[in-house]
Amino acid sequence: MTVPARVRPAVAGFHHLAITATDLDASVAWYQRVLGLQPLPMTFPHNGAEESGHAVLLLEPAQGWAIGIHRHVANPGTPASETTTGLDHIAWAVSSREDLDAWASWLDEQGVQHAGVTDTTDPMPYSVLVFRDPDNVQLELVHLPG
């Protein structure tokens, strides 16, 4: 018998998120080049459905979080869309507004299209830089002024 928790159990931190790619190798290379993520030297099977594909886990070396890039045999190759059920976007915080400008320059150097840095006050003050991965997953870098 499970006893109901009176307090939410603890979470130690963010570990990883996983996305499905149409071209596993191209996506792994893109996340390495653009975000500096480092792949682990093994692949991960889809436990209980090993024949359906596998994943590569890429680690962010300074902070320890990861992105899993999955290959599914049944993937029809449809680009990701935030307008359908599932992942809408992924966002990371940056320390300053100037960091967003530096990221925009970095993305330009990497040949990654982006929307430029947007500063807004509605519904609250923040700045954001929006770009997309090879499968059209929306990625954001966000600065909230102190």
TrEMBL record:
Residues covered by the VOC domain: 13-144
Alphabetic keyword roster: Dioxygenase, Metal-binding, Oxidoreductase
Gene3D superfamilies, A to Z: 2,3-Dihydroxybiphenyl 1,2-Dioxygenase, domain 1
InterPro entries, alphabetized: Fosfomycin_Res_Enzymes, Glyas_Bleomycin-R_OHBP_Dase, Glyas_Fos-R_dOase_dom, VOC_core
Top-level taxon in the UniProt lineage: Bacteria
Entries under Pfam families matching the protein: Glyoxalase
Gene Ontology MF: a single term: dioxygenase activity
Annotated protein name in UniProt: Catechol 2,3-dioxygenase
Organism: Geodermatophilus obscurus
